[in-house]
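Below: protein 1.
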Amino acid sequence: MNAETAALVREFVQRLSATRRGARLARYLAVHQLDAWGIPYGSDLSDSVATVVGELAANAVTHGRVPGRDFELRIALGAQAIRIEVSDTRTESRPPAPGHATPPPADAEAGRGLLLVQALSLAWGVEQRQVGKTVWAAVPHTTTLPKPLLEG
């Protein structure tokens, strides 16, 4: 990464309880941080990021939860994409590989989260960690970054 690209990146990191409340808070904090970076609440980009964060956080607390351990939300604003990472501490439970998520039956009440992530992202994937895994997604944007972000 060159110095100009590095100056364009902003990062937000927060650990949250691996509960439904923690997942809702992740979504709220994400749109709040985007607004602070100059991406307004209710914009298409804010809504897309909120959806991706919501789905990844919900999966972390539903499928990746280990009692007594938090999950981590990381959002990085780059020049062309917003990278969202949600890390949990469960190693044995992994989502299907990108492109292999299958639609649930039409009457199912769940199972569409990764399909939404795939539709809203340039790419997404799973990375192993020393303890657990990180599920990430890159949401594209063409937003002109506010001047304070450009100054580093």
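Below: protein 2.
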Amino acid sequence: MFLLAGTSDARTLAVRLNNQYNVLATVVTESAAQSLIDVGVQTHIGRLTAEEMAERIIVRGDEMVVDASHPFAEEASKNAQRAAQIAGVPYCRYERISENYENKNIKIVENYEQAALEALKRKGNIMLLTGSKTLQIFTKYLLDVEGITLTARMLPRIDNMEKCNELGIPQKNIIAMQGPFSAELNTALYKQYDTTLMITKESGKVGSVDEKITTAIALGIEVILIARPKITYENMFHTFDEIEQFIGGILQ
């Protein structure tokens, strides 16, 4: 079984499926791989094209593609669907349930650029909780702008720090920490950086989005929330039990 593991709950799913099937989980970081290796799940580190995925699926004899990549990993999901087609195996998608956010202090936008432009209008002390992949979009619009202090929070990886340096983010405005983050820690960080505006992605409750938003709102901090990409998935499920039932109905 070929599984794209892009979230913390995907790790749990990989462990459950590995009890019944021979799972190969693909991840992006070494730390994510190690957490799976420690519990006996085979891993591949690094992004793969659709053709590269299909090659591994065929060589291994995998009978199913399970896409549990991050809700914002649009390219990975499209590649997984295409790989399943090439290899001639079924595809299913596990995705966290999307939350409904209705609050006057939350502005929902469709993409990263819209988020940056909205923040540019509001200004203030901005805390960016969207990771490093799209950091350049925000520095393009928000860095070195009068009335704006941009603080970026991301995983404590060397390549992330190098990217911050290349983009010109001052060291004092970088929070390099490994989550998950409790409500108490989020509150402390918001206060430490005198945050007036927070930008995050709607990645789901397991991604600690609830804590990010609820603590920000409680402190009177405005929130810009980037909605999930609109992707049409075949065989999409929101619970592990549903995934297992789908797989079992085909493979057993």
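The radius of gyration is 19 Å.
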